[in-house]
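How a chain folds remains the central question behind the approach discussed here. No coordinates are needed to read the tokens, only the vocabulary itself. For completeness, the protein is quoted in full, as a sequence line and a line of structure tokens:
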Amino acid sequence: MGPIFFNDIRMALRQKAAYGAMMVYLAIGFWVGYKLNISVGDNLAVNAPYSVGFMVGLMSLTIIFMATVLAFSVLFKESDANFDLIVFSTPIRKRGFALMRFYSFFVLTLLGFLLLIVAYVIGLHAQSSSQMNVGFHLWHFLYPFALFGVTNTLLVCGILFFVAQKFQNKLLVAVTGLLLYIVYMVSMVFTNAPFMAQSLPQSLMAQQISSLVDIFGLSAYFFEAKDLTVEQRNLGVVPFSNFLLINRWGIAILSFGMLYWGVRAFSFLPIYKGKVEKKTIPLQMEHAHIPFMVAPTWFHPNTKWRAIVSFMKIDMVYLFKSIALVAVSALLLFYVGMEMYGDIDMGIRMPQLYASSGLLAQTINSNFYFIGALVMVYFVNDIYWRSNASGFSIIQDTAYYAKEKWLGHMGSIVMLVGYLTGLMIFEALVFQLLFHYSVVDWQAYFGVVVFNTFPLLLLSFFLLLVNSISQKKSLALGVSILVFLALATPVSKSIITNPVLRFLSGYSGPYSDFLGYGPYLHSFLWRLVFGFALITAFFITYRWLRSQQRKTIKVLGFLTCMLLGVISGSRFLDGYEKKDKDSEMTERANYEKSYRSYQISPQPTISDVIAHIDLFPESQAYHIKGSYVIKNKQTRTIDSILLNVPKDFELVSLVYQHRNERHEIGTHISEIHLKEGLSPQDSATLAFELKYQWKPINGHESFNAILKNGSFLRISRFFPMFGYDAGREISDVEFRKAQGLGEATALLPLEAKKIKVDDFIGLSMKISTSDDQIAIGTGELRKQWNSEGRNYFEYRAESIPFRFAVASATYASKEVDHDGIVIRVLYNPLHHHNVDHLIANTRLALGYCIQNFGPYSFRSVTFAEVSAFTKGFAGTAYPGVIFMTENMTFNANITNEQNQDVVNELAGHEVAHFWWGTNQIDPDYREGHAMLTESLAMYTEMMLYKRMHGKAKMMERVAMHQQIYDAERGFYKESSLLKANTENLYMAYSKGAVVFVELSELIGEQQLNLALKKFLKKYGHPDTKPISTDLLHEILKVSDETHHQKILDLFE
């Protein structure tokens, strides 16, 4: 049987397509290693054994694609050439032939994956932008290749081999490959597999189940590695034991089982389909006299249109009666339906969301386009070459209107894409019905048509052109797949730098009930118009070159397309700013080289801020006119000042004034050399005017989102700042070495000496916005009025950190009074479901915190909902106001009994920040600062959860945070809670919650609260900024000495 194997290998390697596939595998592998290498943790190198194993495991999913493509040429070779009956007539043994055929199929697939991994290794070691371990260890790459590559290839090839031999149907093999990927991804979501759940916690049982059922082994790999330290992950491979061993052996046994059944099903003969009994009719000779007449012919627009419709009908009957479309429809409904359910259910960590049209439309936009494009690659190729495959094209091409066949194909493509889109929208409506959400937002579903149907049509028309140019069906299919991969997937961003040329890609951006898709919808439409003009120009050029006639109408059509393309392209690219990562890195390096000396130079402190902010939501713009009172709170005279203004802002004016010394500044980064130095305790002023506007071509910043409705701006980040900005520094070690930058600025150690500097400010904000909107600032609302068609609001706050924000939207409002404190909730009128529960929990939180920690600093608490265009938090607290995003608090279906009370969690956590982190306690920015804000807020959140739902429910939340901590700690160097910071927030949030709850059980909740109250009284503003050990000392003071060692151990 050896000749069969070697003949398969030799024949495969003789094909030009094989070398093309090899080049593609090598290119993808190198690109993944060079650009997409993943560092799973900050302290893990990208070539660490754990990281390599993770990447190889992920890349093993490509085996599905490799094996499916190979199956067409290897497993159906004899039947395609009508050679199977000849082989059947030879004395070759069926079993031996089948085993050798599988062996060659397996080896060729594994060879493709090996090329991918080799290129990945080369790309990984060619890059210099990521952290790398020293040296090269072959075993670190061979081990995961054997663990994932060999085993998963055996599995995929076994399944496809069985399907191919059992049913002898190429389409079914292709559907099986696609179904294998979809079912795997869906099953991983619903078993909460670690690499799908991301930061979501899992129970031990869930981890064990996903480790056993994960056919590609990734869950078992993560489960086996969960107790490894960061050093063990960096230096050694994950042990091949326990669940990983069981999983891999189990998959191997399953694979051999599929091979056994595939060999049993193998046959040289085609599948018996039964025979139609034919009746014998005696032959009779008759002489018939039939009159002969000439049929008249007409050639005018009506007959031309009827011919096009006829071609279209032929395609439609073929498509909608085919099993292929039924299978594709079922797959799409299953896959997208599971994604819809997952986005609604949100797993065990997050609450169930309402099945709104916007949520489901986002799910369709994120998942449908990729599969829809892949489906159209197949169907366009199939319908175009169908007449050639049947031999009917010889007759068909003699017809006068045969050249209009491509118009008929276009019509059938439009109907097919429309059908698939309608299927997705229908499924979304069914989900809304099943989850009892009756409000249908047709604007959201119109976006589904724009972001999916239209680009799919453009892609299909372009693929039709590709098929028209190609000489063979297989060549056309291969080129179509390359077009799909290069132009319709995220890979296009690396190939095509100009965004207007990426018109064949979809949209996976945000949707908000405040403003729909915002300006992105119109921008996307302009790009679609450009794509339509360009593809139409291609069609005209192609038909012009193939036609012997040079009609003026074609020239006019071509020129019209070019004009339309120029207009639409320029509209889409309006305001485009090209982002060059290398230039940005160089700019940041030059900033550090030029200005790092200011890190040790005294700089003025802002003491008062007056700001007039004009919001223009309709044009996505705002203007700032402001002034600072700055003061030298250092012990040395300041003779030079470094001033920073964000480069995205238009600098209208910037003026420094100190007595008679005046400096007008015209650059975003400026050094001001003072003629008369600013003496200690002396003051000066800085007046400034800035403008900002963003364009959809460049995208919006999540924390600087000025929108038509639902704006949110962390605006203090964009005000002028003094001194050296360490946040601009580059963290990449290799780049720093190449630029001669030395060590990056480290966070101030916990043990460093305290320096008392009062950097709190007085804030006065006057905000104007559109006539139908309410603007929310920071602090207390003093007054509001309307003038010249605009609403004005004035906010003030005393003694707060330099941290303030602004929001603006068309709101519904509800207010209640709680012991003299006004609780006000501003929300989208559609999102009224949880408002009363939010107010009730705010009452509870205020009562608990006032009773146990001290008085509240303001006369009101304002909750403001902001749009889904802002991401990065569920809620964020500023003095007197809490901003919350729409998709978490206001869209959570907390009426479901199985849901956790996310409103209680967020209200408790964010209200607690009024004591821990907004204006009462402002920790010194050093190691441990996050413990004094987030850990204490987490503790307060847990206590409030206990009061609302009981201790047992609270302990379930604590157990969940313990799981999060256990899962994260293996990726970072072990650190004390006393040193928790923004680089390891899992410590502050999850370990902090566990430690402080355990501490309250150890010394008592009342004693712990007493320590917190004393800590707040002793270190609250304007006293010295506290550090984490200050809190520890206060806790030790109120606790029994027998508990001191236990307390110290908890914080370590």
The mean pLDDT is 89. Residues 2-265 form one domain. The first helix runs from residue 2 to 14. The CA atoms of residues 289 and 295 lie 18 Å apart.
